[in-house]
Amino acid sequence: MHLIGTDLPSESAGRRFRALLDRRAILQLPGAHNGMAALQAQKAGFEALYLSGAAMTASMGLPDLGIITVDEVTFFLRQLVRATGLPVLVDGDTGYGEALNVMSMVRSFEEAGAGAVHLEDQLLPKKCGHLNDKKLANARDMAAKVAAAAKARRDLVIVARTDAAASEGLDGAIARAKLYVEAGADAIFPEALISLDMLRAFAAAMPGVKLLANMTEYGRTPYQTAAEFEALGYAMVIWPVSSLRVANKAQEKLYATIASEGGTRGALGDMQTRQELYDLIRLNDYEALDASIIRSIAPV
Fold first, then answer.
1. Known catalytic residue: 50?
2. Looking at 18, 34, 93, 110, which residue is catalytic?
């Protein structure tokens, strides 16, 4: 938590994200669906995070159909940034409208502490990229959104996502990606490539362009490690909903235990202890900070 001034990063999240992206090693971006998940990812050693629209909506009990708002996303974003100070890549869905809406979104996310955002070329109601029958926006319209995002940002990294491989084939996805780079995208996210050959061919067609791979579970992309994606030519990899999937499964098990046993004793071994929680959220540091702030000063 960055309440103490000496803990605050000296550079913007966008610049810090770009510096991580420019390193030779692939940038690993685990999904974090709330502040606690962000703290746990940071403790594991990750230097940047991903905030997934699918994870946000699912944590709210809603489907991922582009029905949440910019303000709702910034609520989640601020949790991650306030808890860890790490730069975050945020899922911007379709940009919440047209060019002016995209510009407003970029400003809102950057002010909330985002390091990067990705926009996709679907039409509303959008779908998870690994589902069928996605409807695509006109490529020129998407390029206009990318240009608007690039114009509005200060330091934010702009990632353009294309879902075209499913309906327009690999060549169509590559053509769109090149157009989006010309419009100002810093990186490209080719969604739902279904084979290693497709992943490799896409990278070969985009020399010099930073590419993002999506290693979502139960999707169309074959399971790969970060090192394997790096070898294929990718600069970033996300695990968008993994933290939420694990948390949801654990909660399901907990509620089943309470329902069947009338209590939580049988689940204690699966729980984070009180001390582990307090250590992670730095309770004692907060208490010390509060004590130093309210210390009385004698009048002169």
1. yes
2. 93
Q: Is 219 left (phi over 0), alpha (psi -120 to 50) or beta?
A: beta
The span from the first CA to the last CA of the chain, in angstroms, equals: 35
> Catalytic site residue 128?
yes
Q: Catalytic one among 16, 33, 34, 50?
A: 50
Does residue 295 carry a catalytic annotation?
no
Residue 138 is among the residues annotated as catalytic for this protein: no
Q: Is the pTM of this model over 0.90?
A: yes
To the query of whether residue 155 is one of the catalytic residues in this protein, the response is: no
Residues 151-197: tens digit of each pLDDT: 999 999 999 999 999 999 999 999 999 999 999 999 999 998 999 99
Nearest alpha-carbon partner for 189 in 238, 133, 223, 139:
238
Catalogue all structural domains in the chain, each as residue range(s) with its CATH number: 5-241 (3.20.20.60), 249-294 (no CATH)
Alpha-helical regions (H) of 184-234: 196-205, 226-232
130 is catalytic: no
Q: For this structure, is 120 an active site residue?
A: yes
